[in-house]
Amino acid sequence: MALSYEECQPDTTFSERAPVKWAGTGDRGVTITSMRREFSAGGVLVRRLRGRWMVAAIRPAGRRPPVWALPKGLLEPGEGAEAAALREVREETGVEAKALGKLGDVRYVYSLRGERIFKVVSFFLLRYRSGRLGRIDPRQAIEVEEARWLPLEDAPRLLAYAGEREMARKALAALSGPDDL
After folding, report:
1. Host domain of residue 158
2. Exposure on the CB side of residue 45, measured as CA atoms within 13 A
3. What is the pLDDT along the chain (181 residues), one digit of tens a residue?
4. Would you say residue 179 lies in a domain?
5. Which of 59, 92, 108, 126 could form an S-S bond across to 145 if both were Cys, CB 3.0 to 4.6 Å?
């Protein structure tokens, strides 16, 4: 079944409980009436090092085997997706960035303590501005075990989650032109 994104757009910018509609083939659809929705944002943070595009990846704490992921997190009440992506990247990597544009959305359903949750994560292409990767507030260590620059061309192979691998491919395509971002 394909998801119709327009049918599940939030009225607010944070987690809420509301109907989620899944579009099926033809004109039939299924409505799941009690699924909570969450909205997050993340960044594909890039920089040039020694002539190569690199991407910041994190190892979330407590994941085994080690998992590489993109920095992301929930939107705070009243916060827009781009601002949340910049904040989450700063909190999880220690780096300040500049937003270059939205890459796309990743949508999925997960379970937490027996409850199914529909999640939309908006990803943005972000360019490194300042800071040292991995120099994060010690309180973030509960979420992030490590942050590392990885070659962007390797990210579609190294990242653990399919949606994030797709965002890395989109970033690579966006950066394949002139180096004047």
Report:
1. 39-174
2. 35
3. 333 333 344 433 344 445 555 444 445 455 555 689 999 999 999 999 999 999 999 999 887 777 999 999 999 999 999 999 999 999 999 999 999 999 999 999 999 999 999 999 999 999 999 999 988 888 877 889 899 999 999 999 999 999 999 999 999 999 987 655 6
4. no
5. 59
φ/ψ of 149, rounded to 5, equals -80, 125
Q: Could you tell me if residue 66 is inside a domain? A: yes
Among 130, 153, 148, smallest CA distance to 52 is for 153
149 within some domain = yes
114: CATH: 3.90.79.10
Q: Of the candidates 168, 150, 160, 137, which has an alpha carbon nearest to the alpha carbon of residue 42?
A: 168
In a domain, 20, yes or no: no
Number of domains in the chain: 1
Spatial separation of the C-alpha atoms in residues 39 and 74, rounded to whole Å: 6
Query: What distance in Å separates the CA atoms of residue 88 and residue 80, rounded to the nearest whole number?
Result: 12
Alpha carbon of 2 to those of 22, 26, 89: distances in Å? 7, 11, 30
Cα–Cα distance for residue pair 89/43, rounded to 1 Å? 6
Question: Pick from 171, 178, 161: which is nearest to 119 by CA?
Answer: 161
